[in-house]
Amino acid sequence: MKNTFLISLLLASIHLQYTHAQTIQEQLGYSPNTKLLIIHADDLGVSHSENMASFQAIENGVVTSASILVPTPWFSEVAEYVKSHPEADFGIHLCLNSEWKHYKWGAVSDPSQVASLLEKNGLFSDNGQWVAEHADINEMELEMRAQIDRAIASGITPTHIDAHMMTAYRRADFVQVLLKISQEYKLPIGVDVKELKARYPELDFPEMISLDNLYGAGPEDFEKALAEYYTSVLRGLTPGLHEILVHTAYDDAEMQAITVEHVNWGSDWRQQDFDFFTSEACRKILAEEKIQLITWKEVRDKLMK
């Protein structure tokens, strides 16, 4: 009889703990049935075209957050934009690659201090695997911090961090650096943390904010139609915190030259992203599916401050 009572008490305790465990929606002040979505533009700073289209998609479209490539040639234009738009939600797109054929950049740090990150030409590699095979972890951390610090020094208050071309997720020690930086700068990482945990079970992950799902179109989606892919994602969203990664730019001469011989994530792709996420069709789907748009700034301020 005593054992039965103790078992019942234990089960009741477990049930109480379970029922009181808050979803991330509730932690953010929403009902547990809310579909929260961050629509996120990558690669700001890469070009004037990318910047102008992304600013337009934020101001007049449904893009809610974006991240900046600090080492890129058009970074200063983003910093200038922030002066007149301090409410804009910008994170740092931590960068170890320079992927275009004729359009390149290197480190923010003194190149002599991060030589393992650079090819013989003194610039970042176009290949993420090359970085994973060559990078010294101390130099990688130095460069990641330098990119964030340059943004802050330029008047930008970052709301989150993420990884350009996913390169900074390619090694366990890379991820360990990102976890440390996230905690020190109080910036969430724009990633599905459970996927990183599954990939690197040897790491000790702190309690941290995680997306439930991170969506991004692939080459097969581009071949069909990006609008079809995004429509499918929006129609299929379930309650939780989700992010869709997009790349908004104009299919103009500048982007065509930068992305030459790059069909995937090229100028046409980026124009399609811009067109969909500034369209009335997209707004209609968001309304019909009762999707609540949210920013990384809101997530940071409510859960990490």
**Gross geometry:** globular
Q: Strand-residue fraction? A: 5-15%
> How would you spell out the order of helices and strands?
HHEHEHEHHEHHEHHEHHHEH
Radius of gyration: 21 Å
How is the main sheet built? 7 strands, parallel
Quick check: average pLDDT?
94
Secondary structure tally, helices: 14
Total number of β-strand segments? Answer: 7
Helix content: 40-55%
Summarize the SSE layout with pairings:
Blueprint: H1 2-20, H2 24-27, E1 35-44, H3 48-59, E2 65-68, H4 75-84, E3 90-94, H5 128-134, H6 137-153, E4 161-163, H7 172-185, H8 193-199, E5 213-216, H9 219-224, H10 226-235, E6 240-246, H11 253-258, H12 267-277, H13 280-288, E7 291-293, H14 296-303
Parallel strand pairs: 1-2, 1-6, 1-7, 2-3, 3-4, 5-6
Helix pairs in contact: 6-7
Description:
This protein is of the alpha/beta class. The protein is 46% helix and 12% strand. It is built from 14 helices and seven strands. Strands 1, 2, 3, 4, 5, 6 and 7 form a seven-stranded parallel sheet that branches. Helix 6 (137-153) packs parallel to helix 7 (172-185).
Summarize the structure.
The chain is an alpha/beta fold. The chain is built from 14 helices and 7 strands. Strands 1, 2, 3, 4, 5, 6 and 7 form a 7-stranded parallel beta sheet that branches.
Structural key phrases:
305 residues; alpha/beta; 7 strands; 46% helix; globular
